[in-house]
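Now produce a polypeptide, keeping tokens residue-aligned:
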Amino acid sequence: MPNPVTDVPAATSPEAEAHFAASFGFETDCWDTHEALSLPDPGFVLLDVRGPNQFAKGHVPGAINLPHGKIIASRMAAWPVDTLFVTYCAGPHCNGAARGALRLARLSRPVKIMAGGVTGWIDEGFSLETGRVSG
């Protein structure tokens, strides 16, 4: 019986493979981010792109608070041009991570989004850090 799921046929296997393989170039998840942050050099800078008040209420340990509207060339000059940035915001209901990623991409900076944001981080059982941390 037709329904909204089956009304549109699934992509072919080669199309699905290409799509899902490409998605890893655009995003990572909370678990992989957490694991990488436990290393001496995770290989990226984690940016919490929410406002300072939300950041102070709880953020991923090791994250730098840089609201997406403040991602500008002069600010990003503090990092080498090949630095990978990972952005996150409140969660799937928030598009701040995508806004920050877009700004970074427009500045020709490598960037990924941490899917799930703070909500996903908490759902995985990871702790947040509170208080203002300079970034």
